[in-house]
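Can you give me the bound-state structure? Components:
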Amino acid sequence: MTYANDHTALPRTKGAVLRAGEVCFAGSGPGDADLLTIKVLKALQEADVILYDRLVSDEIMALAGEQALLEDVGKEGFGPQMSQEEICSRLVAHALKGRKVLRLKSGDPTVFGRLDEELVAVEEAGLAYQVFPGITSASAAVASIGQSLTQRGRNSSVRFLTGHDTKGFADHDWAQLARAGEVAAIYMGKKSARFIQGRLLMHGAATDTPVTLVENASRANQRVIATTLATLADDLAAAQLTGPALTFIGLAPRASAAALETLKMELA
Amino acid sequence: MTYANDHTALPRTKGAVLRAGEVCFAGSGPGDADLLTIKVLKALQEADVILYDRLVSDEIMALAGEQALLEDVGKEGFGPQMSQEEICSRLVAHALKGRKVLRLKSGDPTVFGRLDEELVAVEEAGLAYQVFPGITSASAAVASIGQSLTQRGRNSSVRFLTGHDTKGFADHDWAQLARAGEVAAIYMGKKSARFIQGRLLMHGAATDTPVTLVENASRANQRVIATTLATLADDLAAAQLTGPALTFIGLAPRASAAALETLKMELA
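Here's the bound-state model for the whole set.
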């Protein structure tokens, strides 16, 4: 860990953000430490104990205060992980001891963050809590390809969905996503790519509908794969992604952004 | 403007973020300066010129570097505002002079931010650009009511839409939003509340579907109005909201968060 970490002072925009005996649920954003909010950075510096998911990046964990006890709860990782019950019981136990407890999740805790189970446990223990938002990976990923999630004349709504649950999607969901101009950001969609491709084509989506995959959004090892609905599953298999990936249906990288991305890859 | 602004050093997470002769499109988040990302805070400090929308809060503009020329382009305000053409031409002119140009939009520039028109102008002038995401108001607002945008067993997708364009919504969009468990965040939905209420009820939504309005999300004057689909339009009219408001269909404030909110209001 050679990451620079000599923060000395924060802009005094407001005072301290954590309180003793409370649990703060916060989003770290997708990985780039510069995408932390000031509020979450303050929480990292103030916390007595930080329970963090494996997807929270090392460069972000390096910003934790020296006093902080760090507990890797492993969620969203591929190795052994702590049970949800155990995470909840630790959050409560730490807060009951009067500690400033930070529960740090990658991305935004309110978007596919499984926030509710932990929040209910804290609530049922009679403890106070706060929720601090984070940059969700769709937002960082779409910025990196020079596109908007919504655009006048193209789409007046955007949908975030998870690949995990797509098999339970109703037919009219698919019919709607299949329309020209629709934009959707699919989280954790790698395993379901072929299923999603099949459903959209079955519901009349154009084979040349642009699809963009962004792996490791905002991180130094970010990769962008521009494809179409026709070639999505094959291109995804060929790319052998290993990191978390976001799939945009209906968006291609902006030409100038794509050129920049190519340049970066050639220089790397 | 009595807002404290004695920032002296940022955590050296990375180096400078702006480059001379380029335009950076960035999101300020919904208003609370603590919800700025470190990246956008750096951009505020580095910029030679900042073109900002009226909804960017004073406490955020107070964090701009002393060297920065500040240009209020007025967008999204109610007073006189600069034309889109004029904004584009200024962005290009400043960048062509070799300045570090920051185009600061409230919220996230990729979510109902009208980013594309300005980005295309910069691209057509042969200039380089970057896009920095921001916390979108739905994310800050949902955190403040202790809820998630998605939740296992309730909804595996969430939709962001704008009230401005809802009249162009297809009937099956309404049918889908009307289903139990669906969650949507409606931006700029004050004027269309009665229309949206009517469409959802017509498509079979339950009259007791929870609806929550969050005005001035994340700001000191944030207000939360918990209502239902049956009483949405009347409660909205009674509340006489004057600030930007977000409407959540399918979400009520968590009981403990609601208690906190009431307490805050009583103390205020």
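A couple of observations. Residues 84-96 of chain A form the longest helix (13 residues). Chain A touches chain B through 78 residues (CB under 8 Å).
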